[in-house]
Amino acid sequence: MNLIGQAIAWIFSGDTGRLAPIPVALFEHLLYTFSAVLVAALIAVPVGWLIGHTGKGRDFAVAVSGAARAIPSFGLLILLVLLFGVLRTFEAALITFVLLAIPSILAGAYTGFEAIDRKVIDAARSMGMTEWQILWRVEVPLGLSLLVAGIRSATLQVVATVTIAAYVNLGGLGQYILAGIPLRRFDIVLGGAILVAALALVLDGVFALLQRASVPHGVRVAQSEHRPSPKRSAAARTAATARA
């Protein structure tokens, strides 16, 4: 049996030895992921909306986001564990993952507003809407799709990075990878990697559906009306070729 087959067999066998059962490790992995993304969203979304609505502070946000992306997550986690102490490893890990998630969510929040046609905003103001009404009735609904895209990107980054939580005894799916290496149980190592990859694919699919659902119905209808049909596109290409 090849290594991939052995890894899949190990996953379905449920024989994790002294390690946590796979459902428990999966729950821990999701807990760390969604906790970090939620905290990051509470910080980044209001700031991103403020930047997108006022048009001020974008350069500063881009600079901060770039600096945050450059920080190595594993090194930051070890540093925070040393600073906080071994009794606060969860807080250290959470801060690490939150800093990883903020840039993508922040970018999704303000680019969602920037992508809105300024004529729509001007029309809302001409109708007598207040800035607060423009924010919640116009900008937030129209910019929601790109915000969900930012949250989607952040979630995928965090769910992959949460594997390092096992280095500070926080569990998660990374514990199988970490425990399998010294034992030379490469089926367990690959099995842990497969579980992380499968979880990322599932979450990506869920967020893809959410992103599609977050597009306002009127926008979807307008996009479908302006999208050329295959027959029309073929006819246009034929006509262009004939003119050439």
Helices and strands in order:
Elements: H1 3-13, H2 22-54, H3 58-70, H4 73-84, H5 89-114, H6 118-126, H7 131-161, H8 174-183, H9 186-213, H10 217-226, H11 230-243
Helix pairs in contact: 1-9, 2-5, 2-7, 3-5, 4-5, 5-7, 6-7, 7-9, 8-9
Task: Give a brief description.
The chain is built from eleven helices and no strands.
Structure overview:
The chain has 244 residues and is mainly alpha-helical. 81% of the residues lie in helices and 0% in strands. It contains 11 helices and no strands. Helix 1 crosses helix 9, helix 5 packs across helix 7 and helix 8 runs antiparallel to helix 9. The protein is elongated, with a radius of gyration of 23 Å. The chain starts with a helix and ends with a helix.
Can you count the helices? Answer: 11
Radius of gyration: 23 Å
Residues in helices, as a percent range: over 70%
Distance between the termini: 60 Å
Annotation, overall tally of beta strands? 0
> What is the strand content?
under 5%
- Pick out the low-confidence regions: 238-244
